[in-house]
Amino acid sequence: MNRTKHLVIVCCLSILMIIAGTLGYMLIEGWDVLDALYMTVITVASVGYSEVQSLSSMGRIYTMVLIFSGLGLFVYVAGAVVQFMVEGQIRETLGRRRLDKKISQLENHYIICGYGRIGRVLCNKLKSKPIDLVVIEKDSELIPVMEADNVLHLSGDATNEMLLLKAGIEHAKGLVAVLATDTENVFLVLTARQLNKNIEIIARAGSDRSAAKLTAAGADRVESPYAMGASNMANRILRPTVTTFLDLAFTHRRKDIQMEEIPVGKASALVGKMLKDSGIRQNYNLIIIAIKKSDGGMLFNPSFEATINSGDTLIAVGESGNLEKLENVLNP
């Protein structure tokens, strides 16, 4: 049974006993409500005060029954309260230790600093892929939300070096700074860059001036939700069909249209083959719309003679099942 529900039931039983005891004295002895309630409370609590008024034989028998019943209920209530408090503390401690152990074992993960509106949406999007995440959030009211969303989390100030080290920043792949203010994000980027010179840092900016400061502080990429939102609205006016296609490809609302980027591993059987000989179109019914080369160059609409090399990233469009099959071949 749920611990909270159990405690509520116990409290209700206690109230019912008090009411029943009060009614009993009123019916047996003919006392008023206050005297009956007072006698019930001191009897159930076994405090040993003198009787309110002299009791009849029936009243004394009723009092003895009430004493034994109240003693049993008191022991039961005390045990339930202690169990509620102790189990809650133990579960909280053990749960925190399990989280800390999982976080300490992570490598090549992403640290999301801030679990506000942007941070939560970001985490929900990233969880659709097998990406390890650790969230740092200082607002204690968001802890139940993170627990409900089943994300690894640490509570505290993300700009604190010790907390970043505890989140595994030294062996993390990337960090996303989406704290409440630009000032906090700038300080966070500076701290993170000092702790790990090679980590990829993406930061949110509220203004162009802040974007420049974040870049100077060490952010690899700076994104402005306001600029992105305005650009998206403009594209919906200027290029409605294109934006509709991109919505379908990236939101995964349709299984027949999805876009994915797939890295090419050294062990892939397609390394060194041209697109025309790879069988990607014939075997998986996928369209390769671009190839990002290992040196950072991008081939848009690559020709059928383009060669697939290790370290390349193929951007493909097609059904999710076929994309997964291709991923197994390109990155076995």
Word description of this protein:
It is built from 13 helices and ten strands. The chain is α/β, with parallel strands linked by helices and 332 residues long. The longest helix is centred in the first third of the chain and has 48 residues, at 57-104. It folds into three domains: 3-101, Helix Hairpins (Orthogonal Bundle); 106-229, Rossmann fold; 256-330, Alpha-Beta Plaits, CATH 3.30.70.1450. The strands form two sheets. The chain has a six-stranded parallel sheet with strand order 3-2-1-4-5-6, with helices on both faces. Strand 2, helix 5 and strand 3 (153-155) form a beta-alpha-beta unit.
Task: Summarize this structure as a short list of keywords or feature phrases.
4-stranded antiparallel beta sheet, Helix Hairpins, 332 residues, 6-stranded parallel beta sheet, Rossmann fold, 13 helices, single chain, Alpha-Beta Plaits, alpha/beta
Task: Give the helices and strands, then pairings.
Layout: H1 3-29, H2 33-45, H3 57-104, E1 110-113, H4 117-126, E2 133-137, H5 143-148, E3 153-155, H6 161-166, E4 174-177, H7 182-195, E5 200-204, H8 208-217, E6 221-223, H9 225-238, H10 240-251, E7 258-263, H11 275-278, H12 280-284, E8 287-292, E9 298-300, E10 313-318, H13 320-330
Parallel strand pairs: 1-2, 1-4, 2-3, 4-5, 5-6
Antiparallel strand pairs: 7-10, 8-9, 8-10
Helix pairs in contact: 1-2, 1-3, 2-3, 7-8, 9-10
Instruction: Please summarize the sheet with the most strands.
Output: 6 strands, parallel
Radius of gyration, CA atoms, in whole angstroms: 33 Å
**What percentage of amino acids are in beta strands?**
5-15%
What's the level 1 CATH class of the largest domain?
Alpha Beta
The total count of helices amounts to 13
> Strands of the biggest beta sheet: in what spatial order?
3-2-1-4-5-6
The CATH fourth-level homologous superfamily of the largest domain: NAD(P)-binding Rossmann-like Domain
Poorly predicted runs of 5 or more residues: none
Secondary structure category:
alpha/beta
CATH topology of the largest domain: Rossmann fold
Q: What's the number of extended β-strand segments?
A: 10
Give the % helix: 40-55%
Indicate how many domains the architecture comprises: 3
Q: Topology as H/E string?
A: HHHEHEHEHEHEHEHHEHHEEEH
CATH architecture of the largest domain: 3-Layer(aba) Sandwich
* Envelope shape: elongated
N-end to C-end Cα span: 46 Å
Average pLDDT number: 85
